[in-house]
Give the backbone structure.
Amino acid sequence: MMIDRIRQAVRNEPFRPFNVRLADGSVHTVTHREFIAIPPGRRPRDLVFFVERQGGEYETHWINAMLVLDVSVPGEMDVAVPVAEEEQE
């Protein structure tokens, strides 16, 4: 599940910005772990992230979690994130 991959990217030490690719082809970069919010639970429906703009402004993006196709850290090779046994069935 992509939410698990996002949670792993947020927890990485040291934190590295990561990209979230959506079904419409758009790619959004999360530049800081405090700029994304994922509701608790195994299968949240939405996530929220913030993008800094010039002058201290920011944009808020609400994303349907089912539209997330990929999570990647630029400059890293894709590494498989372990999938819980319940999700494999």
